[in-house]
Amino acid sequence: MRALVFKDFGSVELADVPKPVIEEPRDAVIRVTTTAICGSDLHLVNGRVPGMTPGSTLGHEFIGVVEETSADVTRFSPGDRVVGSFTIPCGTCWFCQRGLYSRCPDQRSFGGGSFVGDVQGAQAEYVRVPNADLTLHGVDPSLTDEQALFVGDIFTTGYECAGAARIEAGEVVAVIGCGPVGLMAIQAARTFEPRTIYAVDTVSQRLEMAQTFGAIPVDAAAVHVPSHIQDATGGRGADAVLECVGLVPALTDAIDIVRAGGRISVIGLHTDPDFDLPLQLCFIRGLDVKFNGLANINGKWDEALALITSGHAHPDQIISHRMRLDDAVMGYELFERKEALKVVLTP
Ligand SMILES: [Zn+2]
Ligand SMILES: [Zn+2]
Asked: Are 129 and 191 in the same domain?
């Protein structure tokens, strides 16, 4: 079958790989109908997140139809339409028993390399899904593939980030970083009915999209963001800041933007080992900083899907490019150059 595979640092290629088969007792094999390229695929290709083996299939955002299940899969049967989560929790540990799936020490991921279980990815015609009862979610027939696809990763991630910020009606929210997760966080934040959402980025296409989602764009290349937000809030700062970048300057900005007693919810993937925390300032101002780590997709996707089914969120609006899987290499190039906001692929 055709699959998009890691070739070497900085490069991917389309390859012919073996069709997956059932390997473990709780596996299912899914025929992929729609998949997508994620920012974390770029981190893997570029080596920011290590562990990829040449020839291994990338991709962890997918929706499709169950092709085959092993005997221990009880919730799904061949022919069922399903969306996958990017994480594969073990389902049995202390954390999983309490629904804290993203804290599972034995969780794996699709197409994420040797540090996350070496499970082949979903940018392919078929994907093997371990622990299928937990890793798959049924899809309401009223939803298209594109509408439901992102509950397996970026939309539920943005939803968890917004939820962790405990946004109340009438508040001022700032979202730092308007990549796909930041844009999803804006959509999710809106469901809590804040008065204003400021969307911070430097890429005009992303700021325009944020504006169509109801946020006020703030171009970080044109203004000093903390001063801008302070000025816009009577010198107080934002009630809640969603940090969706994962770099030290973004976290520094979040601390400078949030009001005294406000909340910072961090979902950007931080890989720097440490950071100079302005301890006295954080203490005196009573800041509440929540590091979310990987999102709890499997624990939250019921809620996230309900927002989409009820029409309160439209994650498919971020799709900028639709391509055949055969053209996935071009999709990676466009995404790398930030010319594509979100690329979906059909095998
Ligand atoms: Zn992802
Ligand atoms: Zn577990």
From this structure: no
In the reported structure, the alpha carbon of residue 326 is separated from the centroid of ligand 2 by a whole-number distance in angstroms of: 35
Flag whether 306 is in a domain: no
Between the CA of 88 and the centroid of ligand 2 the distance, in Å, is 9
Q: Is residue 114 part of a domain?
A: yes
Question: How many CB atoms within 10 Å of residue 329?
Answer: 14
Report d(CA 270, CA 272) in Å as an integer. 6
Cα–ligand 1 centroid distance for 212 (angstroms): 23
73 phi/psi in degrees, rounded to 5: -85, 120
pTM of the model: 0.95
**Pick from 339, 334, 325, 296: nearest CA to 58:** 325
Are residue 16 and residue 82 in the same domain, yes or no?
yes
- Alpha-carbon distance values, 315 to 130, 151, 191, 242, 324 (Å): 26, 9, 13, 18, 20
Say how many Å lie between the CA of residue 94 and the centre of ligand 2: 7
What ligand is nearest to the CA atom of residue 40? Answer: 1
pLDDT of residue 48: 79
Q: Ligand 1: distance of its center to the CA of 286 in Å? A: 32
Q: Which ligand is nearest to the CA of 61?
A: 1
Q: Report how far ligand 2's centroid is from the alpha carbon of 102 (Å).
A: 8
Q: Is the distance from CB of 47 to CB of 102 less than 8 angstroms?
A: no
Pair (274, 324) in one structural domain? no
Asked whether residue 219 falls in the same domain as residue 339, the answer is no
pLDDT, block means (10 residues), the chain with 347 residues: 96 97 97 95 88 95 98 97 97 97 96 93 98 97 97 98 98 97 97 98 95 97 96 97 96 97 96 93 97 96 97 96 97 93 96
Classify residue 106: in a domain, yes or no: yes
Parent domain of 112: 2-139+314-346
131 is a domain residue: yes
Considering every ligand atom, which ligand is closest to the CA of 107? Answer: 2
